[in-house]
Design goal:
7 helices, 275 residues, alpha+beta, 4-stranded antiparallel sheet, 7-stranded mixed sheet
Length: 275
């Protein structure tokens, strides 16, 4: 990457990554959204953005967090249009992001600019670490699927993101909720699923499996290849949030979100009424 300027001083890639990581870390710690980081990384420098993500993830790991899976972002054309990004990305799921057991009181105080999307979650029963991955092998690696709500969030003020911003910000991850039903793929075809999501009792988003890269299993295949290329292949027991089935919906304190996904049942989240 060519040298970029930050505050009038030339910085190389390593320095740019450090600046971006510190900016995002401070925004999360101080609970105050920051300016985009593409000014130092470049708007389309994917490798630099993933390095920021990796460094921020390592900080969490050093504090005792545990990786429980991955999320695939920006798989839906509707969501891509909403945030102005034109390709998928991935982020890391940590144990403290799973608020399934707190679905009656999702902590609004942990969120800055939350939006919610309904997804199909896959729980893996086998590693996906081989080179010759295909849809058949990916399908066979899935232990079961569950309805899920991903509560996306951005440390970037006003969701003013390019692809480098969202990748660096752990793919705009926040929290997630898994529904109670566990369904094997023997009798469930992810691409044929339909979804309806309500906000405070009113229909807010609809979609289907085909909205997720044509098939949520295609999204899982993309992630399996990409994760392996980055040296961190998907492992048995991990959760994969495969991507939005329809447009995401902004939420605030006190919001009640409910999604129905055909073949998988329902999943709900009620947000605490104060930040």
């Amino acid at each position: 990457m060519a040298d970029r300027t930050h505050g009038g001083t030339a910085v190389d890639k390593a320095a740019a990554v450090r600046v971006a990581a510190e900016r995002l870390s401070r925004a999360g710690t101080e609970r105050s959204p920051c300016a985009p980081v593409r000014d130092v990384l470049g708007a389309t420098d994917i490798a630099a953005a993933y390095e920021v993500q990796r460094q921020l993830a390592q900080r969490k790991l050093d504090l005792g967090a545990r990786v429980v899976g991955r999320k695939i972002g920006l798989t839906s054309a509707a969501v891509q249009r909403q945030v102005g990004v034109d390709r998928p990305d991935f982020g890391i799921l940590f144990d403290d992001m799973d608020v399934s057991d707190r679905a009656a009181a999702v902590p609004s105080e942990r969120l800055l600019q939350p939006r919610v999307e309904a997804e199909i979650a896959f729980v893996l029963g086998a590693d996906l670490d081989v080179e010759d991955l295909d849809l058949k092998r990916v399908r066979e690696a899935v232990d079961h699927a569950r309805a899920a709500l991903e509560i996306v969030d951005s440390r970037i003020a006003g969701w003013d993101i390019a692809i480098a911003d969202t990748i660096a910000d752990n793919a705009s991850s926040g929290l997630f909720v898994l529904g109670p039903e566990q369904v094997t793929l023997d009798g469930f075809e992810p691409r044929e699923a339909t979804m309806t999501m309500t906000l405070d009792g009113l229909e807010a988003s609809t979609g289907d499996g085909a909205a997720c890269l044509g098939d949520p299993l295609e999204a899982l295949l993309w992630l399996a290849h990409t994760a392996r290329e980055f040296g961190e292949p998907l492992r048995a027991g991990q959760v994969v949030l495969s991507g939005a089935l329809g447009p995401l919906v902004p939420v605030g304190p006190g919001a009640v979100v409910h999604a129905e996904i055909s073949g998988l049942g329902s999943v709900s989240a009620t947000f605490t009424d104060t930040k």
